[in-house]
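Handout, page 2. Input:
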Amino acid sequence: MNEEMQQILPWAALACLGAYLGFEINRRRDKLRKVFNTFDKDESKIAEALEALIHSGQIRPYVPE
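Output:
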């Protein structure tokens, strides 16, 4: 019985770790969606206008250094 427990315990720990990682990734993804998927009609028009300015070369996209 002790040998069986030694074989099962690492797999159980890996399963718990995998479940936690999956939960955490899903939680963070949902949080990011709530933050970045908040564009309404007016904000999407502004975003489209900014994209057009970038493509025309009038402004450059922000690139952190």
